[in-house]
Specification:
2 copies of one chain form a homodimer.
Chain A (H helix, E strand, L loop, with lengths): L4 E2 L9 H5 L11 H18 L4 E6 L3 H11 L3 E6 L2 H12 L3 E6 L8 H10 L4 E5 L1 E2 L4 E2 L2 H8 L6 E5 L18 E5 L10 E6 L1 H9 L9 H11 L8 H17 L1 H22 L1 E2 L10 E5 L6 H12 L1 E2 L1 E2 L2 H4 L3 E5 L6 H15 L2
Parallel strand pairs in A: 1-13, 3-4, 3-5, 5-8, 8-9
Antiparallel strand pairs in A: 2-10, 6-7, 9-10, 11-12, 12-15, 14-15
Helix pairs in contact in A: 2-9, 5-6, 10-13, 11-13
């Protein structure tokens, strides 16, 4: 198959040498090789994310942690902030689990505001509050750090952060921001093949789950953390091949450092926004724009589907339309995350300029 | 890393050409390529398993379906048959989910008997009955087909079958055996790299979940089935690389056919048992021995751990000790599943004979 370079908001481009790392015969998940592999990726991830909390790497999409975070921590009531498709999904997941869900709703394109969170939390007793760090559907970056400051005043409410398309490309001080649980998928800013989810969990969350009457087994924090402590392995057979790729890419990420990746992503975001302002407009609220995915407002009435198709055909570069029927033609999205640099993004914007005759 | 040929009860040996199939650049999970890939593996799996029921391929270990089957189908009470570590795990998972669990318990090494199941089901109202097809810890093959006949007399009780180390190497007539849900992991008799679970679900189970107040989201049957019907894709980003390997291996399995794979596994099991009876004894109850993993009773007081180590060192072949502290030295296990043939098993038994001086 012809190589198509990805600028969609996930899966993102994975470097050839990372893919080739999967070219290994299988080995047992209870062998020493596995202990070595799993402890290496867990400890390296802790280093990279600069956290002393528990780190779990689970074979699943990040969505699994949208579910198990709620199963493990919410007894009755949860407050979910929504500002786009993925944060709305978090609320739907909690509802499907039979939980009592209140929503703090924002129009698509707007960000969650700390003062609103405080007000909402004061009105009722919530076991947890959920917030998406980077709303992939709208290109909003919520002020997780400031919201975390608010949560510190509500010690009985767990702060659950979905960082699926942000973590690894947008620095967040996990241990300093009042976060109890934060998770991501590796096929986003980590630039790895999809199939693994990463979850960071603090002691309070671990302890609460342990004392809870019911919780997830597969996505249970307790089981993963205990198994790791006891044996340095995963509780169930993991995707060994993907973990081999993970190990190599995480070493690369450590070499670059989280702070430097953050800077590189900032540069790509700034470049993309400048370009967008020149030809179109940005969709998200000013001051809350994502560092990993830019949602651009299609102010020129360009045929988004056609341009995507032609850029793909002519240049072998792939970017995305707007999310869902609401935004599909009204916006388009450029994912600038993972291992891309400004020159890669420029390659795409040049191609769009050519095809759309900007 | 040196190639070690696997005869453990999973992950099993994966052929080089299947591993190499993962050597592809990433592509989007909402692209036509993905629709083509996912519909191909789902439809081929239906063909292979000879079922008209729904088939789901999910990024997870099979354990995820131990959990979500219960979440999706059990309102109150479930009866779990236990006869070893993995069937006991199924009961623990249900308990962890807060369900009311009754157990039909058997000693390790004994099989679940249809008449006992009937008696137990008559005593109470159960939303579901769980049974492991192949108890990997003891090498027992439960009479799923006969148990299914019993379940047909209890139409309000779902029959959930964990076929994790059997399906693909031990033929079962899914549609004719009263089974509502049956699941496996691909790293066992499918001989694929781990990270995907396969679940077959009938309409009754689908419908019950839909009407249920709470259910799993990630492991929800409904969501996976509906998304497949609407778009031919998965509800969340799947492990694309593993699905590429899956496609190639499933074509190979179709070429061989389920019935022929069944015969080949039967031959390997018979060979292994004959060898075991010559030098040791078989651990499981007569008449209920697994076709994919033989648990051999260490009647000679052989140092199992040492022999495993030396066979690994000298021959680069890997087999397994007994499961858990109870059986670790009392038994040892030979996995004869996936793409192995009798000659491969003989290679291993010859090595054991040499090292253990049999």
């Amino acid at each position: 198959m012809k190589h198509k370079k990805l600028y969609i908001p996930g899966p993102t481009e994975v470097r050839k040498e990372i893919i080739e790392e999967m070219d290994e015969y299988m080995f047992g998940h209870r062998m020493d090789r596995m202990t070595d592999l799993y402890t290496t990726i867990v400890e390296d991830t802790k280093d990279f994310l600069d956290t002393d909390k528990h780190v779990i790497v689970l074979t699943a999409s990040g969505t699994e942690y949208m579910e198990s975070s709620i199963s493990n921590l919410v007894d009755d009531k949860v407050l979910c902030s929504t500002c786009g498709s993925f944060s709305e999904r978090q609320a739907k997941v909690a509802e499907r689990l039979g939980k009592d869900v209140d929503k703090l709703e924002y129009e698509w394109g707007k960000a969650v505001k700390p003062e609103d969170v405080r007000e909402a939390l004061q009105k009722d007793d919530y076991d947890a509050f959920t917030c998406v760090m980077n709303e992939t559907s709208t290109g909003i970056r919520n002020p997780i750090e400031e919201i975390g400051e608010v949560l510190k005043d509500f010690p009985d409410t767990f702060f659950i952060v979905d960082a699926i398309s942000a973590l690894g490309g947008d620095y967040v001080d996990i241990d300093g921001s009042g976060i109890d649980v934060i998770f991501t998928s590796v096929q986003k800013a980590f630039a790895m093949p999809p199939g693994l989810a990463v979850c960071v969990v603090d002691d309070d969350a671990y302890q609460h789950e342990k004392e809870k009457d019911s919780a997830s087994w597969y996505g249970g924090f307790q089981r993963s953390i205990d198994y790791y402590k006891r044996k340095g392995q995963t509780h169930s057979t993991p995707a060994v091949s993907l973990m081999l790729a993970y190990r190599k890419q995480m070493k690369h990420m450590l070499d670059e450092s989280h702070q430097e990746r953050d800077k590189r992503h900032k540069k790509m975001a700034e470049y993309t926004r400048d370009w967008a302002y020149q030809h179109f407009d940005m969709f998200p609220e000013e001051g809350y724009m994502s560092q990993t995915v830019s949602t651009i407002e299609n102010t020129r009435g360009m045929n988004v589907a056609e341009v995507i198709e032609e850029v793909n055909e002519k240049y072998d570069l792939v970017f995305a339309n707007g999310y869902g029927s609401k935004l599909s033609e009204k916006t388009f999205r450029i994912g600038h995350m993972g291992d891309h640099e400004v020159k890669d993004v420029k390659e795409l914007t040049d191609a769009i300029e050519d095809v759309a005759e900007l």
